Amino acid sequence: MPSITPTLTGVPLHTRDYGSLTNIDDIRESLQALDDEETRLDKELDDMLSRESELLEALGSLDVLRPQLVNTREASKDMMTTIEKTSQLAENISDKVRQLDQEQSRAKESIRYVENVQVLKHCVSGIQEAMQSKDYDTAATLLQNASQIDDTILLGSLAEFTVPTSENPDHPAKTLADAKENLFAIFSQRFDDAVVQRNENDITRYFKLFPLIGCQAEGLDKYSRFVCNIIKGRCSEELKMGHKLSASPTYYADILTRLFENIATIIDQHQPLVEAHYGEGKMLRVIQRLQEESDSEASAILDEFLRTRKLEAKLVEIQSLNIAKIRSSTTNWTAGGTGSNPGSPAVTAPSTADIHTGADPRQLGAILLELALICHRGALFHRFIHDRACEEMEVLEGADEGTQDVIMHGKDKRFYGENGLLVSSGLAKRIRELMNSYLVIDDYLLKQSIEKAMKLDDYDTVTTQTSTCVDDVFFVLKKTLKRSISTSEPDVVAATVRLILKTLDSGYLQIFQQRMSAAFSNHDPANRGSEKSPDQGKISYMITLNNLAMSVEYMQRLAQEAEPDVKDAVWKSEEEDVKVVYKALSEFDRAASKFQKLLQGGLEQLMGQIIKPRIRPLFQNAYREVKYVLEEDEYNEADVDELFVKRFRTGFDKLVEVYRRTLTDVNFGNLMSLILDAATSQWERIIAQTRFNQYGALRFDKDLRSVVHYLSSLTDWLSRDRFTRLNQMSILLNFEEPSEIYDYWGAKAGPVSWRLTVAEVKKILALRLDFDASEVANLSL
Question: How far apart are CA 663 and CA 637, in angstroms?
């Protein structure tokens, strides 16, 4: 096998090792490459030689420029020397200028220092003179000017040696401190005297002077005590008149309202004065004090409210009544339809003494109204003072620490929130405690009102389809819910909704369940649907169903009708509180489904125990002496007589008349749905056992159409879908021959959705006597 030698193609000429070549092809290739390279180099050399004259001419031009370049280089050197000297001179001058600037700055600083010392000396001596002459305004102004002098000057040696005089030998810092202390004592006393004398001019005058002597926090506190005393005085006057005016059902809520209005008026009227002399944001310290005063005065008002309204005694009385009621809970508490007479919708009305036993509902209702007003006004005040405090805090956020310290001077920041007010307000705590009492009374009154409505329940069979308890109960519920929303407390609303639902479940829905059970306990199932008291029993039961249907509607409307009140109410935290309230109101929809479930069960029970046993006899009577195997003359005679349709209409009218007359439209429609389900099922069973010929099938189709048309006239709730199977049976029975099914089945069915199975189709076709049984059996479907 010949050896394989690598070629030199692609290897540069200068890297080849020609001495090591042994292959003749490589040698020839290298030789050829060298020849080509030699030819290329010769050509390049020829080109260079042909341009020799051009290169010589270019070099000559450069020789001409050489003397000029020499001169330029020398000039450049001279210029660099000049620049260096100029730069050095400029640097020397700049140093001198900087030195002069520093000396000038020191001189100006010294002059300012001396001037400030002179100003300090003037202020110290002027303060003493002004105080001796009792010119306190001037003294305060001079003290303010002195306080603006830097501490390094005040405490410096120059001030220490130059400012003191024989009349004022003390250090100027001590002199100013003593002056501040003396002026503060004077201003405080004069301010207090002005307050006692009710001298508004002096009150304003001395209030303005406190910030001049650096006592902003103290001045604001003085002013806060002044306005708080105004509020306290007005509140005391209101309470002193309480024994005369407390008969008013909202007297204490009105006093509390006037307290809040007085505070709001003071904030609005006095804020410009505070901001003008103390700066923006400083009103917050006054608002903080007013919040504390509102807690104190409101607490006094609420204490008087508890004492006058005897709230604690009423709560104890309610508790005793509740305990007594629990002990006697074994008594059957029911009304209409559950008394000794099962056919009567309501028992005999109880005596007035039975109904009004216990705490006076009118007094309790008045207390609830006043408590709701107190809570509402408290929420309004909280919203107002919170908003005003937040406005002040926004201003203070961009202020220096000193300004912010004035607001919180002497206060524990742990007890204050982001709005600068107390996190735990005494007023809010008291109102929460009162709202617990509110819920106890509300629960008691709600149960009493519903119990009374159920005991006095009655209805007029001529004018109404529901008994009186539904409107009475839901009027109370609407009033209770509306009152809870008026408190502007989301927790109260949520708790009230829970109370309503709990009371409805135990004192309303449970009674309807008992009435329905009692109605069927008087039914004799062995008598094939007849009742011992047919009219009274059924009517009582249907009225209960109507009550349930109306209760479902009212339950849903409770939440819907409450929405405008929720939107109009004033909430402390708009977004969060409204979310809590709407979540609570949504419970009514869930509770409505419980009523709906009981209603549906009641309709089904009515259908199963009373109506359904009468469906089969109705059809049996309607089909008496009716057949579907007819000759032509029999068909014509049946077409005129319409025995089945007439009997069916008569029997069905008799069956549903009392329900159509007594039930609401919705209940009757739902009951009709159940009746039609049972009727169509019964009719299908009858048809499946009947024999037909062509004339009979035509007669059946007409009967079916007439019955559907008749039933459609009874209710708007009729669904023709219930007759789909019967209609499809009629289609099958009216075929000319069994094979016609292929035009309606499978791919050719089109929009038709067959409800009959293949076995049922064949069974129906087999009912035609004139169809070949084997042909029907052999249909491929």
Answer: 39
Exposure on the CB side of residue 122, measured as CA atoms within 13 A = 12
The helix or strand, by DSSP H or E, that contains position 612, with its residue range, turns out to be none
- Whether 519 and 543 have beta carbons less than 8 Å apart is answered as no
693 sits in which H/E element = none
Q: What are the phi and psi torsion angles at 250 (to 5°)?
A: -120, 25
Hunting for tokens 């509902």 — which residue is that? Answer: 361
- Find the distance separating the first CA and the last CA of the chain, reported in whole Å: 83
Alpha-carbon gap, residue 546 to 550, rounded angstroms: 6
The answer to whether residues 293 and 221 touch, using CB atoms and an 8 Å cutoff, is no
pLDDT tens-digit series, residues 725-765: 999 999 999 999 999 998 888 776 666 788 999 999 999 99
- Paired tokens of 388: 């005003």
The two three-digit tokens of residue 760, written as one number: 């049922």
Question: Cα(50)–Cα(60) distance, rounded to whole angstroms?
Answer: 18
Residue among 202, 200, 223 at smallest CA distance from 274: 223
Confidence of residue 5 (pLDDT cuts 50, 70, 90): very low
DSSP 310-362: THHHHHHHHHHHHHHHHHTTTS----TTSSSSTT-SSPPPPPHHHHT-SS-HH
d(CA 541, CA 520): 8
Look at residue 6 and tell me whether its pLDDT is greater than 50.
no
Amino acid at the residue 389 = A
- In the three-class reduction of DSSP (H, G, I as helix; E, B as strand; rest coil), residue 767 is classed as coil
Distance of CA 614 to the CA centre of its chain: 53
Structure tokens given for 257: 């309202």
Contact 437, 315 (CB under 8 A): yes
Handedness of CA 731, 734, 738, 739 (dihedral sign): negative
CB 688 within 8 A of CB 763: yes
pTM score: 0.74
Q: CB neighbours (10 Å) of residue 315?
A: 16
Cα 712 from Cα 306, distance rounded (Å):
65
- Give Cα 64 distance to the centre of its chain: 96
Helices first, then strands: H and E counts in the chain: 30, 0
In the numeric block, which tokens belong to residue 385? 């003072």
Q: What is the pLDDT of residue 671?
A: 94
CA–CA gap between residue 570 and residue 383 (Å, rounded): 8
* Per-residue pLDDT tens digits for 340-383: 333 344 433 343 334 444 578 899 999 999 999 999 999 999 99
